[in-house]
Amino acid sequence: MITTRDKILSSVMKPTRYTGGELNAVIKNPADVSVRFGFCFADTYEIAMSHLGLEILYHLLNKREDTYCERVFAPWTDMEEEMKKHGMKLFALETGDEVTHFDMLGFTLQYELCYSNIVNMLNLADIPVRAKDRDESYPIICGGGPCAYNAEPVADIFDFFMMGEGEEIINEVADEYVKWKKSGKKNKRDYLEAIAKIEGVYVPSFYDVEYNDDRTVKSVRPNNENAKPKVKKRIMKDFNDAYAPDTIIVPFGEVVHDRVMLEVMRGCMRGCRFCQAGYIYRPLRERKPENLLGIAENLLSCSGFDEISLSSLSTSDFGGLKELTDGLLDMTEKKKIGLSLPSLRIDNFSLELMNKVQKVRKTGITFAPEAGTQRLRDVINKNINEEDIIKSTDLLFRGGWTNVKLYFMIGLPTETMEDVHGIADLAQKVLDVYFAIPKEERANNINITVSTSSFVPKPFTAFQWAKQDSRDMLIEKQNELKSSIKSKRIRYNWHDNKTSYLEGVFARGDRRLGEVIIKAVENGCKFDGWGEHFKFDTWMKTFDELGIDPDFYTSRERSYEEVLPWEHIDIGVTKKFFMRENERAKAATTTPNCREQCSGCGIASFGTGVCYE
How many CB atoms lie within 10 A of CB 440? Predict the structure, then answer.
């Protein structure tokens, strides 16, 4: 039977975004299950299908006989227009069914600028946006992912959030849903009270937020006996036994990461003071190389991908890297399958390792010095020095690499123009390393790219109290850096400061921003992470319309005494540790990594990982 979806696909770009039916997608009969779960990703198909967490939770939920997990992505603007024209609501890829009558819709919150798409998707589904306006006839709306650690700007939209890693907790909330459904789904509050008892579940409506006269948060307190004063994140204690899918969906169209992703470890031991992921995913836990080789073999054989990428926050810190890469190369070399090692540190990779990787194909390499001067690298606790950078790039150039990308941030706390000039100086020194090598020992056509993003202070980092650079200051620094780069062989790319500004507002925002997001979508905002659709002026007018000053969230330094909007969330790393790290940053004093010396961050309370090696 030809459906409305089939009819309109000829009118849109990239129709494979909406067809479903890919190799290894799960097909079930919805009538045979108790729970229909929509895994919602508030961005396009090609972004969503590159997300490892989606593959893990999709296949994990579909292992349950009582649950059918389908994928639900944001339709691009052309598809949205066609859907509205034909009276069609938001639908799931697997069955094409409208999601309005699903049991649960779970959004992964990967990026603050996706908040408008969450609202837009609920509008497209004809589901009331605010949780208080949804009764038992609507799906339960839940969320997780990195932005859930401060989900206050979207707290009024969601029924609940799952804090931390989802492999166990998602099954527990599904079990409770089955019980509630069997009892007749009389009252949504009954279900929320049942799951509020589960460690890691945060039900925003069970907490009252009070504000001081100066607009800061006065308190966040539970208003329900089932809600905990602090919601503690969940982790997979034994990561070696954590669920890893033995199959992977093979997209019809091209996606951002068109390859097998092999998650070798979770967490990070480094303690870079700006890096939220490094703290929220603590402690560092590894998988055994022999287990990883088995997972890799399954995923390559069921997918036909010609590249495999090792996924982690710092791949070169993986203890079994040599054993794993040797085993993978035995598996991939004959079949001409490429091996990609992102997230390498500039101070602990070897030419031997890089030569292994280039056996099938040689790609460019990215290093992240993050700051241009040693003082500022010490402020952010990067724990690399100029000698590491020079030595590593010399190795690369002698090994035949000619495409090197150097990634920095501007706007870091305590940064001066001298630090900005240091970026240009460091790039020039890297170029000088290339020309210092005899012609016959180096490849031709050197290509150095300097890339800068604008620093955004994030919750649960040492810089969560910091002031964010104004847009004018960021523009001044970008222009200064641009004029400081003299060589035509060094290309400079920079990130738009307007998106960084809005990201900063929502990263440390509170519940008062929820109405701004809803109103901004009414005013036409969506796909804010996509330059061609980002409407900065519309956002600013919306803030003004609702009498909210966005600068309040970005342009001031907070005191340690201020109650932060996320104070009721517990990631295991203590506030005292972050305060100590912030003071060490001000003194440009570094902190050793977790394998060198325990810094007493508090994460040892989880009883696992690098803390107990």
Answer: 5
Residues paired with 569 in a beta bridge:
231
* pTM flag (> 0.85): yes
Q: pLDDT tens digits for 15-41? A: 999 999 999 999 999 999 999 999 999
List of domains in the chain: 4-164+166-232 (no CATH), 240-362 (3.30.750.210)
In a 3-state reduction of DSSP, which class is residue 493?
strand
C-alpha to C-alpha distance for 202 and 568, rounded to whole angstroms = 10
At position 579, the amino acid (one-letter code) is M
Cβ contact 369:382 at 8 Å: yes
Q: What is the DSSP string of 233-259?
A: PB--SSGGGS---S---B-SS--SS-S
Phi, psi of 308 (to 5 degrees): -125, 135
d(CA 467, CA 312): 29
Radius of gyration of the CA atoms of the chain, in A: 24
Quick one: three-class SS letters along 69-113?
EEEEECCCHHHHHHHHHCCCCCECCCCCCEHHHCCEEEEECCCHH
- Structure tokens that stand for 420 in this block: 């900005």
Contacts of 318 (CB under 8 A, 6+ apart): 264, 265, 286, 310, 312, 324
**Could you tell me the two tokens for 209?**
């937020």
Residues 353-371: tens digit of each pLDDT: 776 666 555 566 788 999 9
Of 18, 99, 93, nearest to 58 by C-alpha is 93
**Considering only CA atoms, which of 31, 42, 187 is closest in space to residue 95?**
31
